[in-house]
Design goal:
By secondary structure, the chain is of the alpha/beta class. It contains nine helices and seven strands; from the N terminus they run βαβαβαβαβαβααααβ. Helix 3 packs parallel to helix 4 and helix 7 packs across helix 8. Bound molecules: nicotinamide-adenine-dinucleotide. Nicotinamide-adenine-dinucleotide binds next to helix 1, helix 4 and helix 6.
């Protein structure tokens, strides 16, 4: 992307972006000439070093702002401290797996707060910035679990369905403005979070790595391939483009056919 691109120089705030999908989106955005604000709940030297490395690699401004998005006031502070937010990517998320009758209440509260409510707070502060700038994009990283359910993931499925609903409301409230709001719904993506589940799965089912991936982890993903963080970054970048100006209030699945089943 050249400096004449309408996206060059705009600022994207990506929540939960020191790893996985958020970091993949950050790479795609920085490569396209966007300035990026990275975030997670930590505030370590390595977080700031990551921002510096991205900045050096792509020649754009990259900052890291630590904010624990389980707290509403921290989510709001993240956007206030960013100062500018042309593109907001609500990506931070956690998971816990247990039957609903034994699901720990503190895990429920944390998943709802981080995966869903944080997007309400960040969007509430970012929208006036987008209106002032006369352009904006809200991109919520939901999940195939925003459209379908699985057992033992009650909080996650509830939060992701909530995010899809909130996306539609934001789209309607901004429908006559140059702002769009959409949700990306990934199937399984090979991030450190998912990679770390593979050894346990191999052990539990007595399978080699490839069989455990295809038959257990990707059981519901008809392509039998993981989506990649780069593909997620490319999808988010497309939603920022002028080609996507009339795409609002919808979901885009990047799930190898999961939700077609
Ligand atoms: P990840 O663990 O690599 O990334 C999650 C990010 O959220 C990390 O940067 C983490 O530090 C951050 N985070 C966690 N708690 C936070 C908090 N309290 N405050 C601020 N940041 C916090 O996982 P990922 O797989 O990249 O997941 C990213 C998003 O994509 C999540 O919303 C997840 O639900 C969604 N998703 C992932 C997959 C997948 O297969 N990996 C599939 C569908 C949806």
């Amino acid at each position: 992307m050249t400096d004449t691109s309408p996206l060059a120089g705009k600022t994207a705030v990506i929540t939960g972006s020191n790893s996985g999908i958020g970091l993949g989106v950050a790479h795609s955005f920085a490569r396209a000439g966007l300035n990026v604000v990275l975030n997670s709940y930590t505030d370590r030297d390595e977080d700031h070093a990551l921002a510096e490395k991205l900045s050096g690699d792509y020649g754009v401004k990259v900052r890291y702002i630590g904010a624990d998005l389980s707290k509403g006031e921290e989510a709001r502070r993240l956007i206030e401290d960013a100062g500018t937010c042309d593109i907001l990517v609500n990506n931070a998320g956690i998971q816990h797996v247990a039957g609903i009758d034994e699901f720990p209440a503190d895990k429920w509260d944390a998943i709802i707060a981080i995966n869903m409510t944080s997007a309400f707070h960040t969007t509430a502060v970012a929208l006036p910035m987008m209106r002032k700038a006369g352009w904006g994009r809200v991109i919520n990283i939901a999940s195939a679990h925003g459209l379908t359910a699985s057992p033992y993931k009650s909080a996650y499925v509830t939060a992701k369905h909530g995010v899809v609903g909130m996306t539609k409301v934001v789209a309607l409230e901004t429908a006559q403005e140059p702002i769009t709001a959409n949700a990306i719904c990934p199937g399984y993506v090979l991030t450190p979070l998912v990679d770390s589940q593979i050894p346990d799965t191999m052990k539990k089912y007595g399978m080699d790595r490839e069989t455990a991936i295809k038959e257990v982890l990707l059981d519901r993903q008809p392509s039998k391939e993981f989506a990649t963080t780069d593909q997620l970054g490319g999808t988010a970048l497309f939603l920022c483009s002028d080609h996507a100006a009339q795409i609002t209030g919808t979901t885009i699945s990047v799930d190898g056919g999961w939700t077609a089943l």
